[in-house]
Every structure is written in structure tokens, then in C-alpha cells.
């Protein structure tokens, strides 16, 4: 499976998504590791098998094993943190903001790649998962590491396109299943 396979699986009504997928996969503004790590972390955040398989297949020769592992780790840890910190952020009672999380998050401190890369991947996943508190925290860290707003925006663009691809593919699968059951 490849990104070309994903593009060919997208229906005509998703032409913009298909074109955006081509554009982000060829973006050179982040460098290869940041680009492909963001793609992998975003793919895992969507939980969509075809998207994960296609992006992982293309990333295999573009990312070192430790970077691939770190991108997956960013998706994993943010799956937990985005739920927890979104709750803390949205809960009306202020008590939760003062309580320790008591969740193991060691990978954030030692991700096996440059901290800025891991933060970028965590931001992309947080955007997909919709955690404003995590978005703010990772965006602030990225600025401290010297990333420019355009680089940060590129990661979020990647996340949005990968998420849209997954949504369209899942929607098409649901439609086909409904049509098959009705027949």
C-alpha cells in the first residue's frame, strides 16, 4: 500500500483532499524526518488501518527506526494525554487543575529523537484529537525550540489532511456496507 493507493481510493467528491495529500507528501519545508514523522503520528491518530498501512509503508525508507518508533509513541502518549488534559481543561471544577496527573509519560522527556520533532508530532496528534490544552502546550514548546509559525502550521495542515483522508475512507466503507446490507 502507498500514498498513491490512498489517493486512488478517494472518490471524486474528495478531489481537494486528494490534491492536498499529494501536496503535503511532497512538502519540503519541514525536512524529511519532521514531515514523515508527522505523517506517521497523524496516521496512527486517525486509527484508520489503510491510512496507517499506506503512510507507514512510504515512511519505512524515509525514517530511521528510532524516528518511526518516536512518531508512533507520540500518537500513543497523546491518545492518553489528550483525553486527560482535555477533561482538566474543560471541567468546570478548578480542583482538577491542581491535582497531579499520576500518568506515566516518560517518553515525552526521552523520545529518542530531537525534542522539537517529538513536540511537532505531538502537536499534530493533539490537533486531530482536539485537545486545546495540549495544542497550546506543544505549540509553546515548539516556539521555544525556534520553529516558525509556518512550520507549526504545516504540521497541523498535514494532520488535517491525513484525518480527512481517514474520514472519507471510513465514510465510503460505511456507505458500501449499508448498500450491501440493503441489497
Using brief descriptors, characterize the structure shown:
0% strand, Alkyl hydroperoxide reductase AhpD, mainly alpha, 10 helices, oxidoreductase, globular, AhpD_core, 183 residues, AhpD-like, 77% helix
CATH class: Mainly Alpha
**Oligomeric state, counting identical vs distinct chains:** single chain
Tell how many strands the DSSP assignment holds.
0
| CATH architectural designation | Up-down Bundle
What structural class results from the helix and strand content? mainly alpha
CATH superfamily: AhpD-like
* Amino- and carboxy-terminal Cα gap: 30 Å
Please tell me how large the radius of gyration is: 17 Å
Give me the CATH fold name. Answer: AhpD-like
Could you describe the largest sheet, including whether it forms a barrel?
Answer: none
H/E element sequence = HHHHHHHHHH
The overall average pLDDT, rounded, is: 96
Beta percentage is under 5%
Amino acid at each position: 500500500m502507498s500514498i498513491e493507493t490512498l489517493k486512488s481510493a478517494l472518490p471524486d467528491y474528495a478531489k481537494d483532499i486528494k490534491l492536498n495529500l499529494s501536496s503535503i507528501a511532497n512538502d519540503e519545508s519541514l525536512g524529511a524526518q519532521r514531515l514523515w514523522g508527522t505523517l506517521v503520528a497523524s496516521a496512527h491518530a486517525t486509527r484508520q488501518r489503510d491510512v496507517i498501512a499506506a503512510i507507514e509503508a512510504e515512511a519505512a525508507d524515509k525514517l530511521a527506526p528510532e524516528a518511526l518508533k518516536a512518531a508512533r509513541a507520540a500518537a500513543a502518549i497523546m491518545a492518553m494525554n489528550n483525553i486527560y488534559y482535555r477533561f482538566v481543561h474543560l471541567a468546570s471544577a478548578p480542583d482538577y487543575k491542581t491535582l497531579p496527573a499520576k500518568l506515566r509519560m516518560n517518553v515525552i522527556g526521552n523520545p529518542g529523537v530531537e525534542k522539537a520533532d517529538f513536540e511537532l508530532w505531538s502537536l499534530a496528534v493533539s490537533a486531530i484529537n482536539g485537545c486545546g490544552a495540549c495544542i497550546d502546550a506543544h505549540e509553546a514548546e515548539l516556539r521555544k525550540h525556534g520553529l516558525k509559525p509556518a512550520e507549526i502550521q504545516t504540521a497541523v495542515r498535514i494532520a488535517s489532511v491525513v484525518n480527512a483522508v481517514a474520514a472519507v475512507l471510513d465514510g465510503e466503507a460505511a456507505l458500501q456496507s449499508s448498500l450491501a446490507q440493503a441489497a
